Amino acid sequence: MADGLTVALATTAISTSLGAFYQIMPPIAEVRTKSDSDPTFRANVRVSEALAAFIALGVGGSISALTGNNVPLALSAVFAAAMIGFYEYTLRTDRLMEAV
After folding, report:
1. What backbone torsions phi and psi does residue 69 show, to the nearest 5 degrees?
2. Cα distance between residue 9 and residue 69, in whole Å
3. In terms of Cα–Cα distance, which of 74, 59, 67 is closest to 23?
4. CA dist 35 → 44, 51, 58, 67 (Å)
5. Residue by residue, what is the 3-state secondary structure of the chain?
6. pLDDT tens digits, 27-72
7. How far is Cα 67 from Cα 33, in angstroms, rounded to an integer?
8. What pLDDT shows up at residue 1?
9. CA angle 59, 22, 92 (to 5 degrees)
């Protein structure tokens, strides 16, 4: 069972990762509607993905380096990969909910 410090650090890493993606990325509805017609918008989404992932991994890595616990970095990496996967899937899919 995880101790309280590990849970607190993991929660901090996840919430910071969520904040990075929320602040930097455009709304998913906007990505879905604009992705077909605007190649510049698609490029901007990809740059935003890279920046948000960099912030998420940087915070998770910093917390992991300070504490010697790899859980925050691992959770930040998994969260960033999931968010990037979801945005990329949305960019490539015309009808998001019908494809599922």
Report:
1. -115, 125
2. 9
3. 59
4. 10, 19, 28, 41
5. CCCHHHHHHHHHHHHHHHHHHHHHCCCHHHHHHHCCCCHHHHHHHHHHHHHHHHHHHHHHHHHHHHHCCCHHHHHHHHHHHHHHHHHHHHHHCCCHHHHC
6. 888 888 876 677 888 889 999 999 999 999 999 999 999 888 888 8
7. 43
8. 44
9. 110
What separation in angstroms does the CA of 3 have from each of 6, 65, 69?
6, 18, 12
Structure tokens at 67: 């504490």
Q: Would you give the distance in Å from CA 47 to the centre of its chain?
A: 12
